[in-house]
Write a structure and sequence with these properties.
Blueprint (H helix, E strand, L loop, with lengths): L6 H15 L11 H18 L13 H12 L11 H16 L3 H13 L6
Length: about 120
């Protein structure tokens, strides 16, 4: 990896990374080393959350944001809906949810739910 603080390298790297996170995109020709490296890291991250692309692209895509939502659900003691996810994705989701459950604090949960309720925010 070259200097990530080099603006040209950084731009190419993040462009490759974002392309790697998109399971539909196949890059046959890489534009630069930075793009190629970013693409490989992005693709690896995608496959760590959703399974190998060679096994098919799932109907629902798991992202870091989705995993953070499941972590929060665990921390709040909320039930989760795993409908539409593949068995591979459910394993990943359950790890994040369980991590949230381990951080669950009844007293914090009550306070947070009270604040949300006072502001008219409903959690489903």
């Amino acid at each position: 990896m070259e200097d990530i603080f080099n603006p040209v390298y950084r731009k190419d790297y993040f462009e490759g990374y974002s392309n790697g996170l998109n399971p539909v995109i196949e890059i046959k020709e890489f534009y630069s080393d930075a793009f190629q490296e970013g693409f490989q890291i992005g693709r690896q991250e995608y496959e760590n959350m959703n399974g190998k692309i060679s096994n098919g692209i799932p109907k629902l895509i798991v992202t870091t944001k989705v995993l953070e939502d499941f972590l929060l659900a665990g921390m709040l003691g909320m039930n989760i809906d795993e409908t539409g996810y593949t068995p591979f994705q459910i394993e990943v989701i359950q790890k994040w949810y369980q991590s949230g459950v381990e951080k669950y604090d009844v007293y914090s949960n009550r306070s947070l739910l009270s604040i949300l309720d006072d502001n008219g925010i409903e959690l489903t």
